[in-house]
Amino acid sequence: MKQTEKTLIEQMKISEFEIAQRKLLFSLTSEDIMLLKVSKPLIDRNIDFIVKRFYELQTEIPEISLLIGDADTLQRLAHAQRKYVVDLFSGLYDIEYVNNRLRIGLVHKRIGVEPKLYLSAIYTLKSLLNQVIRDNIQDQEQRVRTLNALEKLMYFDITLVFDTYIRSLVTEIEIEKEKSDQYAQDLEEKIKERTNQLEVMSRTDPLTGLLNVRHLTDTLTSVLRAAQRRSEPVCFAYIDINDLKKVNDTKGHQSGDEILKNFAETIRIVSRAEDSCFRYGGDEFCIILPNCGSANAIEIYKKRLEDEIQKRSGFVSYSIGVIQTGPQDFLDPEELIHQADDLMYHQKEQAKIKLQASEVLELRQKK
Ligand SMILES: Nc1nc2c(ncn2[C@@H]2O[C@H](COP(=O)(O)OP(=O)(O)OP(=O)(O)O)[C@@H](O)[C@H]2O)c(=O)[nH]1
Q1: Residue 13 has what pLDDT?
Q2: pLDDT on residue 54
Q3: What is 302-330 written as a DSSP string?
Q4: In CATH, what number does 211-366 get?
Q5: Residue 242 Cα: closest atom of ligand 1
C-alpha cells in the first residue's frame, strides 16, 4: 500500500487505544476534560483577544515574522489558531482531534518551523489562555484545576506534534539514504561494467579483435590440464603470413593491416566455440584446438581454413605448423608453442625452396 493511501493516523499507528494510553500518561482525566469543556463559553467570549494578542506577540519575533511572510498567510494562520483554541476547550479529544495535531508537526517540518519556535508559540498561547482563565474564573479551586487540565492537554498535544515532526525528519533521512544507496549501487555497476570492458580490452588485440599473446600461456595451461583429466588430445597451430613485408612495401601498410584483419576473421569463422584464436604478434597467429588430433586439425581445420580464404579474399599465403599433444603424454605450453613455431618455420623454408626450384625451372623453360 502506498504511503499516500494511508491516513496520517494510520501511518503513525495511533489507535483509540493509543489515544487513551496517552491521556493516561498525562493523567488527563474525564474530570479535566469536563473542566475544559465548562470553560468553553469563557474562551469563546475572549477568542478574538486571544488570537489577536497571540499574533501581535508572535510577529514581534523577527524569525517568526519572516516565516509568516505576508498578511494573507497571517490571516490563514489566525483562522487555524482560532480553531485550535476552540478545539482545546471542546472536551472532545478523539481521533480527529489527534489527527489535526499530528498534521501540525508535518506542516511545521515542511515549512521549516523549528521546535524552539513551536514551543515558544505554545508557551505564548498558554500564557494568554492562563491569563483569561485567571481573570475570569472566580472560584479558586476550579481555576487551579482548569489551569492544570489545560496544561496536561497542551502537553498531550505537544507530544503528537513532535511525533510527526520527528517522523518527517526520519523519513527525510531514509529517503536520502535510499538515494545514496542507489547511487552507490549504480556506481558499483558502472565500475563492474568498466572493469569488464578493461579486462576484455587487456585480453584483445586491437587490430584483429583476436585474443592477444598476454594470455596465451595461461589459456594453454588450463586447456592442457582439462585435456589431461579427460585424456583428450590437443592441437596447437602456429601460423605466419607469407611475405607480408612485400605487401607493406608495395601496397602500403594499410593493405597489410587489411590482410591481417581478414585473416583473423577467417580464423574466427572456421574455429569452433571451444577453440581459442590468438594474434601472437606481427603476422603470426596461434590457435588452440582442444579435443582435436593432428589428423583432424590438418584434414578438417586446415581444409576449412583454405576454403574460407578462397571464399573471402581469394588468396593469402601462409605457413602453418600443427603439433598434437596428449592424450597420454603432454608437452608443457612453452614446448608446444616452440615445436609448432619450429614446424611452421620448417614448412615456410620448404615452401620457399619449392618456389625457388619452380622459378628456376620456369626460367630454364623460357630459355
Ligand atoms: N601492416 C602491418 N604489418 C605488420 C604488422 N605487424 C607486423 N607487420 C609486418 O609484418 C612483417 C613480418 O615480417 P616477417 O614475418 O619477418 O616477413 P614476411 O614478409 O612476412 O616474410 P616471411 O615471414 O618470411 O614469409 C614485417 O614487415 C612487419 O613490419 C601490422 O600490424 N600491420
Answers
A1: 84
A2: 97
A3: HHHHHHHHHHHTS---EEEEEEEE-SSS-
A4: 3.30.70.270
A5: 25
User: φ and ψ at 284, to 5 degrees?
Assistant: -115, 140
The torsion defined by the Cα of 7, 10, 16 and 18, in degrees rounded to 10, comes to -130
- Domain residue spans in the chain? 3-172, 211-366
Please tell me if the CB atom of residue 257 comes closer than 6 angstroms to any atom of ligand 1: yes
ipTM above 0.85, yes or no: yes
Q: Which three cell numbers stand for residue 309?
A: 580464404
Contacts of 153 by beta carbon, 8 Å cutoff, 6+ apart: 26, 28, 32, 36, 88, 93
Q: Which atom of ligand 1 is nearest to the CA of 281?
A: 6
Which residue matches cell numbers 478545539?
A: 87
The vertex-347 CA angle with 329 and 353, nearest 5°, equals 155
pTM of the model: 0.60
Choice from 212, 254, 283, 344 to test ligand 1 binding pocket (greatest atom count within 8 A of CB): 283
Residue 208: alpha-carbon gap to chain centroid: 35
Instruction: Say yes or no: CB of residue 352 within 6 Å of ligand 1.
Output: no
Q: Whole-number mean pLDDT of the chain?
A: 93
Residue 23 Cα to ligand 1 middle (Å): 94
Nearest alpha carbon, ligand 1 atom 1: 256
Specify the pLDDT at position 140: 96
Q: Give the C-alpha separation, 311 to 304, whole Å.
A: 10
Q: Cell 497542551 sits at which residue?
A: 154
Answer for the pair 249, 355: CB distance below 8 angstroms, yes or no.
Answer: no
- The CA distance from 148 to 44, in Å, is 19
Residue ranges in the chain whose pLDDT is less than 50: none
Q: State residue 334 phi and psi, 5-degree precision.
A: -60, -45
pLDDT for position 361: 81
Please identify, in words, the CATH class of the domain defined by 3-172.
mainly alpha
Q: Are 45 and 155 in contact (CB under 8 A)?
A: no
